[in-house]
Write a structure and sequence with these properties.
Layout lengths: L1 E4 L3 H5 L3 H13 L4 E4 L7 E3 L5 H19 L10
Length: 81
Amino acid sequence: MRYIVTDDFVAAHGWTADKTAKALMEPLARIGVMVERARGFGHGGFQSHGLAAEVFRMKNAEVIRIVRQVLDGRPPAGPID
C-alpha cells in the first residue's frame, strides 16, 4: 500500500509536495502505508492494488483521515486504531 504525493498537491492544499510527503511518512507508516514522492501531475493519492473493494474503501478512509489531520497541523500522537 502506498500514498503518492505529486506536484499538483500544492495547488490543492497549499503545502509543497516535498513538505507533505515528509510530514505524512511517519503517520502513514504506522498503518502500513508507504509514502512516495513523485514528480509530475495526477495519479497521486492512496493506491493498493489487489485489495478487495470494501477493504480498499475502509483503508482509504483511514488514510484520508490521517492526511487531513496532518494538513490541519494535528498529526496523530500515538498508535492509530
